[in-house]
Design goal:
The complex is a heterodimer of chains A (about 110) and B (about 280). Chain A is built from 4 helices and 5 strands, in the order ββαβαβαβα. Chain A is an alpha/beta fold. Chain A starts with a strand and ends with a helix. Chain B is an alpha+beta fold. Helices cover about 50% and strands about 25% of the residues of chain B. Chain B is built from 6 helices and 9 strands. Chain B is elongated, with a radius of gyration of 26 Å. Classes of the chains: A alpha/beta (about 110), B alpha+beta (about 280).
């Protein structure tokens, strides 16, 4: 997921996940925490991160994975992901991580 | 017949009768088949070993799929719980919203339980015993195992199973393993093609005294030469040894008095296997 700070103070979180079970749950939690949520369908998180970097977009990016794949982890870190987290994750920890990412983005 | 020396001997005795049916002479012959029996036992043992390795590989793969299939709903449950907490923290609690969140948590919990139950069935059904089988049930079981992998590769698995198919004679885990190997190959062939969404269809039908299962896919298919060579272990066109899995599958089918073959058809791969009806 990647994040952008909106001018009205409500940050937008772009959620990239094609899983029909997870996406609505993540959206519901983040909306409840006060974020504006947009879904980006049809790509994997890593693909979005690669495209963002190719286009020079420096939005903070958190990779949330269920596979525990070390290759993906090192690739995400090399592309400058803010954090690499494994599912299932404590929801509050994820929200805190998003807030930290937004704060680091200035 | 196995005399004291430990040799297996096949005895043939023929009675020569006269025109009224009286036995006039008896001709007997003995053939030492010790080596043949030994070779058969060794071949069976090798096939069992290879089958177990192949099954173990599938079990490892299933464990990885299982981890993913459990992580997703568990993560979703946690997110709905946090969302419910946010709702409860409000001064004007929306009870309908809260009930909706709890229902979703409940549904996800039950779904997660189904994933675990199915995997337990898969691991339990390890007995290698020949028995009568409901072929469509065995096919559905293998399809369920492969479903998550197919979904992740954007491949749709569909079935066209003959409803009144008589029972077959064979080892359920062998049949299941053969179908799993074919489905895995089909999904990988489609994924390597890189053309987005693909489809694999499994059909069952009665053909004479056999039940035939056809696995067709929207992958690149096989030329005439590939259709035969694909069963040779070292002739794989793929880096991870497509031929080995298919060779094991063909051996498993032969052990069940069945057959496995590929059709020269492109585009679209077609594999068939047959097992005897009871």
């Amino acid at each position: 997921m990647s994040m952008g700070s909106a001018r009205d103070g409500c940050a937008t979180v772009y959620v990239v996940d094609d899983d029909e079970r997870l996406r609505p749950a993540l959206r519901r939690m983040l909306e409840g925490a006060g974020f504006d949520v947009q879904a980006l369908p049809g790509m994997t998180g890593l693909q979005v991160l690669e495209q963002m970097r190719q286009r020079g977009l420096r939005l903070p990016f958190i990779l949330l994975t269920g596979s525990g794949n070390r290759v993906i982890e090192s690739k995400a870190k090399a592309l400058g992901a803010f954090a690499y987290l494994e599912k299932p994750i404590n929801g509050k920890r994820l929200i805190d991580c998003i807030r930290q990412a937004l704060a680091s983005d200035g | 017949m196995t005399p004291r020396g430990g040799h297996a001997v096949l005895l043939r005795v023929t009675a020569i009768r006269d025109e009224v049916g009286q036995v006039q002479n008896v001709i007997g012959s003995g053939l030492d088949i010790t080596e043949l029996r030994r070779a058969e036992a060794t071949a069976r043992s090798h096939l069992d070993d290879v089958f177990r390795m192949n099954r173990l590989e599938t079990a490892n793969e299933l464990a990885s799929v299982l981890a993913h299939e459990l992580n997703q709903p568990l993560a979703a449950i946690e997110f709905y719980v946090v969302a419910a907490r946010h709702e409860l923290a409000k001064t004007d609690i929306d009870r309908a919203e809260l009930m909706g969140l709890l229902s979703r948590i409940s549904e996800l919990g039950l779904k997660t339980g189904e994933v675990i139950q199915h995997s337990r069935r898969f691991f339990k059904r390890g007995e290698i015993e020949t028995d009568t089988q409901d072929l469509n049930t065995v096919l559905r079981s293998a399809m369920e195992v492969m479903q998550p992998t197919a979904r992740r590769q954007n491949v749709r698995l569909t079935t066209e199973l003959q409803a009144d198919l008589p029972e077959v004679w064979g080892v359920a885990v062998h049949i299941e393993q053969v179908l799993l190997n074919l489905l895995r190959n089909a999904v990988e062939a489609i994924a390597e093609q890189g053309s987005g969404i693909g489809e694999v269809t499994v059909r069952s039908q009665r053909v004479g005294r056999m039940a035939r299962v056809t696995v067709s896919d929207s992958g690149p298919g096989l030329t005439e030469a590939q259709a035969e060579h694909v069963f040779h272990a070292m002739r794989s066109s793929k880096a991870d040894g497509l031929g080995m899995g298919l060779r094991i599958s063909r051996n498993l089918m032969e052990a069940n008095e069945g057959e496995l073959w590929a059709e020269a058809h492109a585009p679209g791969g077609i594999f068939n296997f047959e097992v005897p009806l009871t």
